[in-house]
Amino acid sequence: MDNIYRYSVKLLTGETLSLKSLQDRPVLIVNIASKCSFTPQLAALEKMYRKYKHSGLEIIAFPCNQFGKNEPLENEMLREFYQSHFSLSFKVSEKVLVNGPDAHPLFNYLKSHTRGIAQNRAVKWNYTKFLIGRNGELLSRYAPRTKPESLKQIIEGQLHHESSTIQFAKV
Which family does it belong to (predicted)? Predict the structure, then answer.
């Protein structure tokens, strides 16, 4: 089984989420940080989630402090920040590493399954996005500057079981 379903994620709520529970749903995975210039993307991600969650979309955000030390907050403070500033209703993991020897195994999978120009490339910055198809396999990787609303068409295609062309954006 070469997909995300073999991984688990520890959420800020204290729960452990088995990604296998997300089978047959498209999933958008994003590494985030509270003090980053891209942090306003959280509002767009939340809007997207509220619009498409009933159709099956899942979003999982992974706070990470590896880029410019933009995520100084820890556990409860993280939860409070994301709730009070963005009212996030999608899943947020505990703080993780996305690069290096101690990177979360999910991110090692995502990096190793990126094809094209970004193949096996380290995550370069906060708000790198990975779109996972209904089968749990990586469809696309998007650079931090890619606005969530620009993913609307491909996400709608996944929600409607359409066969989308796999494209990897330059990252």
Answer: Belongs to the glutathione peroxidase family.
